[in-house]
Specification:
Shape: rod-shaped
Structural class: alpha+beta
Pfam families: YbaB_DNA_bd (PF02575)
Number of strands: 3
CATH architecture: 2-Layer Sandwich
Oligomer: single chain
Number of helices: 2
Keywords: Coiled coil
Protein name: YbaB/EbfC family nucleoid-associated protein
Number of domains: 1
CATH class: Alpha Beta
Organism: Planosporangium thailandense
CATH superfamily: Nucleoid-associated protein YbaB-like domain
Order of helices and strands: HEEEH
């Protein structure tokens, strides 16, 4: 015994999937272009990262008293950049998919 399928529902689901794929590609492009800049708490190191997590640049903005201080500043700035990249990607995701209605 065969099942009855609602072809209109299937067509709608396929179209919806294709729209989602397009939106995901837009999200990926936007994430690669959206930059966040963060600094270590002491202001010694500045990191520029994209929302996809790529570190684009690192700037040393002052003179460290020791290699340990510089290492800590780099670690703090990179950690903050990773957090900021996650935040930026979540914001982009909300903007891209926020008005998307669930399949009825």
């Amino acid at each position: 015994m065969g099942r009855d399928f609602d072809e209109a529902w299937i067509d709608e689901a396929i179209e919806r999937y294709q729209r989602i794929e397009v939106r995901l590609a837009e999200l990926d492009r936007a994430a690669k272009q959206t930059e966040v800049t963060v600094r270590s708490p002491d202001g010694l190191v500045e990191v520029v990262a994209t929302a996809d997590g790529t570190i684009r640049d690192v700037h040393i903005r002052g003179q460290a008293r020791s290699t340990e201080e510089l290492s800590r500043a780099v670690r703090d700035a990179v950690t903050a950049a990773a957090d900021a990249a996650i935040w930026a990607r979540q914001k982009l995701h909300a903007e891209t998919f926020g008005a998307y209605q669930p399949l009825a």
